[in-house]
Amino acid sequence: MKEDLPDDLLDDLAGSPGRGQRFEHFDLGTGDLETRAMEKMVRTLRRSTLTRDAVVSLDEVIEAVGGRAAVVRAWVKSSVSPLRHPSGRLCYRWGDVLDAMQRGGA
């Protein structure tokens, strides 16, 4: 059995060729209503598969938390301690984001 079954399933649903691809711009060749419904389902599934130890980018945090991007971005930067990825990019542990939300933010 595959270890990353949820990610693989979501990748297959989105039609993306590789892991780590974002799902916001896929087209299944269906009408607008069906495409929007599928996009919402994929976002919901992705959010529900996040574990507390998941490492996510700022864009992924903004997408998962929802709301205005500028407000969420400012809140994350002031409330959550970033991790430093070996590439130099900042990333966040999903559990730290949840803890900051529980504390009430800034």
What's the quick description here?
This protein is mainly alpha-helical. It has helices at residues 5-14, 32-48, 58-65, 69-79, 94-103; strands at 55-56, 83-84, 90-93.
Description:
The protein folds into 2 domains: 49 residues, no CATH class; 56 residues, Multidrug-efflux Transporter Regulator, Chain: A, Domain 2 (Orthogonal Bundle), CATH 1.10.1660. Helix 1 packs antiparallel against helix 2 and helix 3 crosses helix 4. It is mostly helical and 106 residues long. Strand 2 and strand 3 form a beta hairpin. Helices cover 53% and strands 8% of the residues. A 3-stranded antiparallel β-sheet has the order 1-3-2.
Topology:
Blueprint lengths: L4 H10 L17 H17 L6 E2 L1 H8 L3 H11 L3 E2 L5 E4 H10 L3
Antiparallel strand pairs: 1-3, 2-3
Helix pairs in contact: 1-2, 3-4
How far from one another are the termini? Answer: 42 Å
| Helix share bin | 40-55%
How many structurally independent domains? Answer: 2
Largest sheet: 3 strands, antiparallel
Percent of residues in β-strands: 5-15%
Radius of gyration: 15 Å
- The CATH C-level name of the largest domain is Mainly Alpha
Give the name of the CATH architecture of the largest domain: Orthogonal Bundle
Descriptive keywords:
106 residues, Multidrug-efflux Transporter Regulator, Chain: A, Domain 2, 3-stranded antiparallel β-sheet, 3 strands, 8% strand
